[in-house]
UniProtKB/TrEMBL annotation:
It is a peripheral membrane protein. This is ABC transporter domain-containing protein. Pfam families: ABC_tran, OsmC. The keyword Transport applies. Keywords: Transport. Its main location: membrane. Residues 1-156 form the ABC transporter domain.
Length: 222
């Protein structure tokens, strides 16, 4: 797993951080672990930093060390938790470049990220949040959630937004309600649904603009 805040040991060198799992978990001999670590650091473009400490590296370099450390364990699947959100904008590219190379080499990656640009595809970003990838339809999930919260049937209709990457569903939602229930309760339920299911998708591309139709009449949001 690759973490948002790198989670490198500050008292160990770059090579030492990559070797740690090999020595502690896999019980590999130190010489073999060091050789594998050097190969992986070269793979992420940091062969010249093997003796440096994390405090002497940029955020992008630290994250590439974290990727090398994860690769050292020879995983079948890699998990990335917001791998670029803690980086300065100019450093994001170097981390994404390494991730794209891994994808091209056949590595399966589960990625939670806000780093969705026009060039991104569902293949490059395997998972980008509910409603944001691979045609996942968030409206059915929202329907069930809102029904449970309000106790009445609520229909959430998703519409496709213009300009979204191929394979990504839209997140503009219209809620239709037929029932005797205070509209503020419904808006509160919608807000809870947004926070639970839509926050990631909203920041990926466009803002969510929910529209509530209560008993056939447009209801302004409080």
């Amino acid at each position: 797993m690759v973490f948002q805040q790198f989670n490198l040991y500050p008292h160990k060198t770059v090579l030492g951080n990559v070797m740690e799992g090999l020595l502690t978990v896999k019980k590999i001999k130190r010489d073999e672990a060091a050789e594998r670590g050097r190969i992986l650091l070269d793979r992420v473009g940091l062969s010249d930093k093997q003796d440096a400490y994390p405090s002497r590296l940029s955020g992008g370099q630290q994250q590439r060390v974290a990727i090398a450390r994860a690769l050292a364990m020879e995983p079948e699947v890699m998990l990335f938790d917001e791998p670029t959100s803690a980086l300065d904008p100019e450093l994001v590219g170097e981390v994404l470049s390494v991730m794209k190379e891994l994808a091209q080499e056949g590595m399966t990656m589960l990625v939670v990220t806000h780093e969705l640009n026009k060039g991104a595809t569902p293949m490059e970003l395997l998972l980008a949040g509910l409603g944001g990838c691979m045609g996942i339809d968030i409206t059915m999930i929202l329907d069930a959630f809102l029904d449970k919260i309000t106790g009445i049937e609520i229909e959430a209709q998703g519409t496709r937004s213009e300009g979204m990457p191929k394979g990504f569903t839209a997140i503009d939602l219209i809620f239709k309600v037929d029932g005797d229930i205070p509209d503020y309760r419904i808006w509160k339920a919608i807000q809870m649904a947004e926070e639970k299911y839509c926050a990631v998708s909203a920041s990926l591309s466009a803002d969510i603009h929910p529209k509530l139709i209560l008993n056939g009449v447009d209801t302004p949001r409080p």
